[in-house]
Design a protein that fits this description.
Helix 6 (137-147) links the parallel strand 2 and strand 3. Helix 7 (164-175) crosses helix 8 (189-198). The chain starts with a helix and ends with a helix. 35% of the residues are buried. The protein folds into 2 domains: 1-53; 81-208, HUPs (Rossmann fold), CATH 3.40.50. Strands 3-2-1-4-5 form a 5-stranded parallel β-sheet, sandwiched between helices. It is 51% helix and 9% strand. The protein contains 9 helices and 5 strands; from the N terminus they run H-H-H-H-E-H-E-H-E-H-E-H-E-H.
Length: 255
């Protein structure tokens, strides 16, 4: 089996909702044979689902990832490259290209346009492979940028990286020794910055797509009630935390 695919399968299996489902299946399996064990699995599944869906828990979890870098304002020196890390899209010719982008890619696109307005001297590098789509994410982002007024001559595409580590490995040789701005979602920025730093590049972080806009804002009663959006947020935070753990291990051992 392809190592990249295996990694994705394992990752899916250890996400909160997957673990809940696994515990429920185990609970059913032991329902008649071992009722006490069945009950413990059922209770564990319910507790995991409850905790993962609580805003007060989810927000504190993800803010530890999002608050590592300040938002980009303006570089004191000219910017050579603006790197947009790959995201997701779904090709549909009936939709404008901007509507084919998934939310994370749209957030990165908007941030890139904002920074490009501040630094029109920069080249924009889009990145990301095609996955199951016929068009790479790098190419789709290029189409969106051109639709919104960026000249094709100012856009460079990297169509083959499948993950952030490969993006850093393929893009870094091109941008060595230059002033680089790196755009990705705030929760993903710590891992992305580390990958580029490992390749000898020290970008200026430009985080976007914050899940938690203001941790200290007034909270109503709904903040203490579980909801599905916070379950998704916890899943994102868990995914990034696992990624950081794997990155830490790989930095210390050679595979």
């Amino acid at each position: 089996m392809d190592l990249f695919l295996l990694k994705k399968i394992i990752t899916v299996c250890v996400m909160p909702i997957s673990m809940v489902l696994i515990l429920l299946v185990v609970s059913l399996y032991f329902f008649k044979k071992r009722p006490r064990r069945s009950f413990k699995c059922l209770l564990s599944a319910l507790l995991l689902l409850l905790v993962s869906s609580m805003p007060v828990v989810s927000d504190h979890f993800i803010v530890q990832l999002e608050d590592n870098y300040e938002t980009f304002s303006r570089s004191s020196s000219p910017v050579d490259y603006i790197i947009i890390l790959g995201g997701w899209h779904t090709t549909n010719a009936a939709l404008p290209v901007t509507s084919q982008l998934h939310p994370a890619s749209t957030q990165r696109l908007i941030e890139a346009l904002r920074i490009y307005t501040l630094h029109p001297e920069a080249k924009i590098i889009t990145s990301g492979h095609h996955s199951t789509d016929t068009v790479s994410n790098a190419q789709k982002m290029k189409q969106a940028l051109m639709l919104l007024g960026v000249s094709e001559q100012n856009i460079i595409t990297e169509n083959f990286p499948k993950d952030t580590e490969e993006e850093a490995q393929l893009i870094s040789p091109r941008v060595q020794g230059t002033n680089v701005v790196l755009i990705t979602n705030a929760n993903h920025m710590p891992r992305a910055m580390k990958y580029f730093q490992n390749e000898g590049v020290t970008p200026i972080a430009a985080p976007t797509g914050y899940w938690v806009k203001n941790m200290n804002s007034p909270k109503g009663w709904g903040y203490y009630v579980p909801n599905s959006k916070k379950l998704q947020q916890t899943t994102v935070a868990w995914y990034e935390s696992l990624g950081l753990l794997v990155q830490w291990v790989k930095d210390r051992f050679t595979f």
